[in-house]
Amino acid sequence: MQATRAHLGKRISRDRECAIICCMRTRFSRLFERQGYHALGIVLLIAAAWALLRLDTMRAGRFAGLSSADWVALAVAIPIVHQLYVAVIWRLQLELGDARNREGSVAFRAYTVGFFVLFVARMATTVALALSNAERMALPALLRAPLAAALMIPTAYVFYSVVAHFGVIRAAGADHFDHSYRSKPLVRKGIFRYTGNAMYTFGLLALWIPGILLASPAALGTAMLQHAYIWVHYFCTEVPDMRRIYSGSTPD
After folding, report:
1. Residue 28 is assigned to a structural domain of this protein
2. 62-99 pLDDT tens trace
3. pTM score, two decimals?
4. Which ranges of the chain does DSSP label H, i.e. alpha helix?
5. In angstroms, rounded to a whole number, what is the distance separating the alpha carbons of residues 101 and 95?
6. In sequence order, what are the beta bridge partners of 67?
7. What are residue 63's DSSP bridge partners?
8. pLDDT value at residue 126
9. CB 3.0–4.6 Å: which of 59, 172, 194, 216 could bond 211 by disulfide?
10. What is the Cα–Cα distance from 25 to 91, expressed in whole angstroms?
11. What is the pLDDT along the chain (252 residues), one digit of tens a residue?
């Protein structure tokens, strides 16, 4: 009888160890899910930026003591840092984080400060690049304002919809920290009524506006690269995360 109990105890212990190992492997695989593709996206982004810098018009000009080539490097490096920052913190919080790290916690506040500093830096470096590389492209002045306005309309609607319906904090990734979001439905108001990918499809059109208004090919080129790279974040980080957070519900 005692031998049977000892054997059963050992079996339970082995099963528990196997369950722990299996759980650790699952969490490890989730931490890095699709991040190999993310790394490939970074390589392609840097290669494309390098190719742009081989063109004289992309390197022409200076602003605030830096050359246009320097501003191109910053306009590419900051989005990489931003999206890696988000991917690392989202995955760590989602898989290994403390459930107490919700809105209002020190951890979440620290994360949001970094998020918005890098978000603003993306736009600031694009504007600086456009100023350094201005008037290097044959874009008629009469077309600039209408083209910029055409991009500003959906962009403004995105930001209005985020503030009015979605929430700026949620847009920064609060659902990775605060478990209460997991019982909430996906937002289907404002521009999100038409597409769940509004922030990716239309929000980053704002990055194109400085290049258009100042006729800067370098600013337009990096805006195109940034807009393409944000979709790497969507497919490699956000889609897998949302499947876990919202139990299979993902944006359109």
Report:
1. no
2. 999 999 999 999 999 999 999 999 999 999 988 876 66
3. 0.84
4. 2-31, 35-52, 56-59, 68-96, 106-132, 141-161, 168-171, 198-201, 209-213, 217-233, 239-245
5. 13
6. 62
7. 66
8. 96
9. 216
10. 14
11. 555 555 555 555 554 554 445 445 566 677 889 999 999 999 999 999 999 999 999 999 999 999 999 999 999 999 999 999 999 999 998 887 666 666 678 888 899 999 999 999 999 999 999 999 999 998 898 999 999 999 999 999 999 999 998 889 888 988 888 888 877 888 888 898 888 788 899 999 999 999 999 999 999 999 999 999 999 999 999 999 988 888 744 444
Residue found under tokens 């920052």: 85
Q: What DSSP letter does each residue of 6-38 carry, written as one string?
A: HHHHHHHHHHHHHHHHHHHHHHHHHHTTTHHHH
* Pair 159, 94: CB distance under 8 Å: no
Tokens of 30: 């989730």
Q: Tokens 């605030």 appear where?
A: 64
Domain-embedded: residue 252 = no
Amino acid at 99: A
User: Is residue 10 in a domain?
Assistant: no
Mean pLDDT of the chain: 86
What is the distance between the alpha carbons of residues 115 and 142, in angstroms, rounded to a whole number? 37
Structural domain including 153 reads 35-245
> Domain total for the chain?
1
The length of the chain is 252
User: What span, in angstroms and rounded, lies between the C-alpha atoms of 52 and 4?
Assistant: 73
